[in-house]
Specification:
Low-confidence stretches: none
Number of helices: 0
Distance between the termini: 19 Å
Strand content: over 45%
Structural class: mainly beta
Largest sheet: 4 strands, antiparallel
Helix content: under 10%
Number of strands: 7
Strand order of the largest sheet: 1-7-2-5
Shape: globular
Amino acid sequence: MQIDPYNRFYAVTPSDTVNFPWGPCEGLFIGGNGTLQVVAQDGTVTEFDHTKGVVLPVKAIRVNATNTTATKIVALYRQ
């Protein structure tokens, strides 16, 4: 099975109101340990705890600032 690589990247600034400018991402890279409060396409909010260097395979529209402690977050796209 071949997996297409990500070819667009957006450095995420967590916000409780501003969605990603390119629409839902296909994954989030977490560069620094911590918690992410992620908003899904349907508006569902979920918290994830991750260590650095992990790709979280989610279709998210935003990472909320509230309760997010992870750093160096990058939204990943295949477009």
